[in-house]
Structures are given as C-alpha cells and as structure tokens.
Amino acid sequence: MENSFQVFDGKYLIAEKIFLIKKDTFITGDYNEINKSRFKLNGNILSFINLNNDTVISSFERGDFKNPLDYFNYKKGIKICVPKLNSEEIRQTEKANSIYYDSHGNLYYNGRKTAIKDLASQFRTDGEYEIIYTLIYCDRNVSLSKLQEIKRELIKSQNYFVTYITQNNKNQLEGINVRLPHITESESILDLIPENNYEALICQITNDKILLNGKEISSNQLFQLLKDKISQKKNELNVKVYFDDKMNYERYVKELYNIRNAYYSVRREYSKIKFGDSDYELMDDSVSIKIRDLYPMRFFEINENDFKRIKYAP
Question: Domain range for residue 19?
C-alpha cells in the first residue's frame, strides 16, 4: 500500500503498521489518530521527531510486509524460504539473536553478513538475561550438514537455546524451540546419557526413508509408534535419532517436530483426562511440571559416529 508504513528497529521489522490519511494525520492499525506530529520522510523511511529536542521518537518504513522474514529478504535482496509447517511451538523472547542462511551459502548474524566459522566470536551475550535464544531462519533446501556446522559454533560459544523458524499456511512465522547439548567436539552425546535399563528406540532418518530399530516405516507410523511407547513407558524410554547430514533442512525440521509432537500429544491427552484441559503449559506450574516429569522428552539427536557405535555394538 503506497501510504502504509511499518515500524522497524534498525534492521528488524515490527508488526505494527500505520497509515497516512492526510498531510499531518496518521492512523494506526487499531485506529488511534496521531495528530500534529512533526515528522520527516527520507526516501521510504518515515521518522517522528520530538518537538523539544529534535530527536527521533520512532521510525517507520514504507511497505506492506507479511512478516520479518519477508522484510529481511527485501532489504538484503535475497530469498530465504523457511520450511512450511504449523509448529505452534514458538515462545516470545525478550532478547534474541538471529541467524539468516540462504540456499547460496549467504549467512547473516543479527543482520550483518559473516561466515559460519566466524560465528562463535560474534555471538552476543547479555548478563541481564539468563536465556538468550538464537532464531534460525534457514532456507528449506539447505543441507543439514550446514546447520550442524552452525550448531557446533553455537555450542562452542555456549549459546544452547535455539528456535528453528517455520512458516504456517497463513504466512505467519512460528518455530521449534530446541536446547542444544552441553558437549565439546571431542565428546559423544551417548556418554552424557545416564546408564539405565530403559527401553531404547533407535531411529535413522534420511531424505527418503525412516528406519526404526532397523524396520522401515512412514512418518505417520513413527508418530503413532512413539505415542504408544511414550504412553506405556512414561519416563523409562530413550529415543535416539540419527538424522543423515545429506538430508535437506525442511525434511529435518518436519521429522524433528513429528517426534517432539508425539510427546506433546501424549502430554495433552493425559492432561485432558486428568485435569479436564489439554493445554497443560498454561496450567499452574505444579501441574505442568508434573506432566512433563511424567512424560519427559528423553529424545537425543546422535551423529553418524554415535549411530555406528550403537549399530555395531557387541
């Protein structure tokens, strides 16, 4: 729309939009008027000025963007298409870093172009916040091996909380929240799993097949089998999954969420039966913690060496 503007913070688009309806009057999305504001228009950037000291109060940019990724692609002249998935898992975070990675190997950290090998030296920390998420906007055609490189840099710099951004069928951005393991490059995640006699499910996922304990199954079958096992075994089940590095990012994200959703589904069903409401995350902490403890997500991503170690173990 010619006379619509959206708020932006340096390089990040914010959803709020305003409309110029006459020379000095603007209307926001909730139809509150902005009257007698002093402003300047420099190209497509609209800035409102403090009448007392000439400082900029807020800035808007002309355009009609569907979401922050749409805006970022426009500003950088690139095209990142994140996986299409109704993940509905994203949480609001007050502080977040961002990584954008396109199918041509262009990587941007907080809007600045850089290389994967240089990420660890650039990650931002903030003592005010205990947890800082890194939002990953990765093109769906990127090889999983590249994401693994990014994850290793995150772990190296002790940034363990990430959100894989996805896009639903309404063009809204959602995401999958993941906590990366606290391991060094020389360690195996298998060595960090406490020894127990729990039942183990070993899953191998490639671009074209899924093997569960050596038997080929479909994605829907994997979901149902996991649900059944989680319901039966509760907290006495270890699920170890090897995602082939040659698979594409979209396949990875969809199967990752499929596995996680099996846990969520069991928890929601139990919550509905026990407490009359399936949305356990919005209940009192004592209830939501109890449900998560009863059905913990004992799900471990393993690499090729770990998989071979399990497969060929005596």
Answer: 4-64
Using an 8 Å Cβ cutoff, are 136 and 150 in contact? yes
Tell me, yes or no, whether 184 lies in a domain. no
Q: Where does a domain end: 179, 204, 225? A: 179
Where among 144, 179, 214 does a domain terminate?
179
> What are 196's two structure tokens?
């127990």
Backbone angles phi, psi at 136, to 5 degrees: -105, 110
Amino acid of residue 55? T
- CA–CA distance, 186 with 188 (Å, rounded to integer): 7
pLDDT higher than 80, residue 223: yes
User: Please, are residues 20 and 26 in contact by the beta-carbon 8 Å criterion?
Assistant: yes
The pLDDT of residue 104: 95
Within-domain flag for 221: yes
222-230: long-range contacts at Cβ-Cβ below 8 A with a sequence spacing of 24 or more?
A: 222/255, 222/258, 222/259, 222/262, 223/258, 223/259, 223/261, 223/262, 223/265, 226/201, 226/259, 226/262, 226/263, 227/262, 227/265, 227/266, 229/199, 229/201, 230/262, 230/263, 230/266, 230/295
* 24 in Cβ contact with 37 (< 8 Å): yes
* Percentage of the residues of the chain whose pLDDT score is greater than 70: 75
